[in-house]
Amino acid sequence: MSILVNKNTRLLVQGITGNEGLFHTEQMVAYGTTVVAGVTPGKGGEWVMDGKIPVFDCVKLAVEATGANTSIIFVPARFSADAIFEAADAGIPLIICITEGIPVQDMMRVRNYLDTKKVRLLGPNCPGLITPGEAKVGIIPGNIAIPGNVGVVSRSGTLTYEVVYALKLLGRGVSTCVGIGGDPINGTNFIDCLEMFEADPYTEKVVLIGEIGGTDEEKAAEFISKYMMKPVVAFIAGQTAPPGKRMGHAGAIVEGGSGLAADKVRALEAAGVRVATHPEEIPGLLIN
Amino acid sequence: MKLHEYQSKHIFSKYGIPIPKGRVASTSGEARAIAEELSGRVVVKSQVLVGGRGKAGGIRLAKDPREAEELATQILAMEIKGLPVRKVLVDEASDIKNEIYLGITNDRSARKPVIMASSAGGVEIEEVARVSPEKIIKVHIDPLLGLRDYQARDIAAGIDLPREHWRLFSQITKGLWQAYIDNDATLAEINPLVITHDNHLVALDGKMVLDDNALFRHPELAEIRDLDIEAPAEIDARKYGLTFIKLDGNIGCMVNGAGLAMTTMDIIKLFGGEPANFLDIGGGAGADKVAAAMRIILSDPNVKTVLFNVFGGITRCDEVARGILAAIDEVKPKVPMVVRLVGTNAEEGLKLLENAHMITAETLADAAQKAVAAAKS
Which of A107, A231, A240 is nearest to B368 (CA)? Predict the structure, then answer.
């Protein structure tokens, strides 16, 4: 039915006692996600959500006590790299980092360290992911998507919500919607998700939402033309973005003539991907 | 955040990188005094955060203190690419035999820092990459291990540097690496690194760009940010936690989320309009934040209409609508406004705005077309 998260997800929330962490834990639990533990250093032994979820001082203890197999991180940017290292060292195979604004050198160290381990990081600076009807891990609103066969992968948040919500209004649902985040150095990229969607029997079509900056969309295009049988529809944001300016996301910047929207559209079209000129065209391209 | 040449070179010198003797001056009198101290020929260099200073006449050679004063007077009166010259660097002139490029930046697709070097220094590295890419040596550095000695030697050998300079070159490369790491730089560049006729290596020019997200670790550097390169509205927006980028069009945009904000600009253009700005109001949309955003957008006299495009997720559309109403009450805008609310509680939100004399739109395309029409009327 999905990739990465489902009914078997046993979630740990790092930073569970903070405002954001607690609010979204409540939202995730209300959606039906199994949240088994929280971690806040110095608050081990406390409980949150009316005594339903135990808080631990460290990830290792939380994993031993609860069998958590996925972690989501809501800690402030200056502590995020450490939180990711901690989750990885405790043996958690899937880590989702929502935090925005992590220093890029921290992320380079994190990514190069994780590459030596069997750990998948999603994000940072991402909305997380949702498998409608099964689990939501992150901040994607639960009411905007219904279960279905369209896989969605995106560098953006609200833009993606728009697209899955438009699909819902047409009665079309989503297998899994994955936000890979807007940072220049991230854990999971387009190709990782495309590969999983291609292998997922419940996903029939894929929507890819990219934006200016970097060359991940071009690499995805190459992957699609070589390895994908399932149809892919895409949209690229930032056609009108001026060069040299960071458009909100740390990774959304055209630098030295690289990262242009037009180049990404061209590469995707050459790979047989239908590229929407604006996001409201996506449902039509998927259905026809 | 970009650092000036004099600031970058000051940092480099703390890491054992030889730089020319010299100091920065804000007046021509100071420039003369520095030239007198240095004696001999000096270079007077404008300190502005744009490329092409030399071509614009912002870097000049003076044979004596009197000429240094004259040139400083001229340069301090200049504007280069729209930026006022507020300071000049007065450096002793070097006797150049060769010019080398040496720089470190983040290679996004390799997810590692990369050191780049070239024997064709003195011109922009992008230019070298275009004309003679074979002249650029690239060495990726494992961020967990740091720069190894052999890598510094490889770079020296790769650019055919005479062996007599290898030791000093390695020291400079390692210094630059440490400066890059310690200061959370996204770029640390020496261009040119010169070999003088008496066989010294000197960093003639320096450039650093720092990671804005890491400035919390470097409060002393955050303080020296040069605000001249930013539009006043962009500085104002940062205070309210808004991301704002000024553009040249006449349709103001207020959107939640960076991807959706870019898309809103794109679709305005697609339907024949021109966006006046990029603005992401981020999560939540309290009245104070919306009002600040509205004031910033309307401070641009070009703006003929404002388009609100909000997707309500966890932030509900009725909350956003209340924010818009309060902001209208406070700012009292005189231009037509188009609003599109979608998602959680969109209907309730639109109902609240019924008496606000706003043009409502259902789809993104509809909103863009209505905004384009409003801007033309």
Answer: A240
